[in-house]
Amino acid sequence: MATDAHSGSDGASVDEPVYIEGADHLEQVVDEHDVVLVDFYADWCGPCKMLEPVLDGLASDTAAVIAKVDVDDNQPLAGEFGVRGVPTIVLFANGEQAEQHTGVLPEDRLRDLIEGYTE
């Protein structure tokens, strides 16, 4: 079965961000991959736009799956994670939430965060 970049099917590497369509979709992506970095963002958020190319790069050159959750389209999901500001980054390792950070983190810090759970 080929990997669908949208759903992350078959557990293989996903080289571009996966846009999450709700709680069930997020749960599926987290269950199928060892390390998932979730970006809770909003289209109107300037810092979120600055972070976007960084996350695109991390998606293509790290073992983690980068998942993106639009807080305006997924308010209940954002509420479930206590998202009070965007961007908020939530890292899952082996199906469990391991880290949560609000605000823009530099690329090297995000890379270190991912690599801490993928090695």
UniProtKB/TrEMBL annotation:
The keyword Electron transport applies. Residues 1-119 form the Thioredoxin domain. Transmembrane segments: none annotated. One of its GO terms (molecular function) is protein-disulfide reductase activity. Pfam families: Thioredoxin (PF00085). One of its GO terms (cellular component) is cytoplasm. Keywords: Disulfide bond, Electron transport, Redox-active center, Transport. This is Thioredoxin. It comes from Natronolimnohabitans innermongolicus JCM 12255.
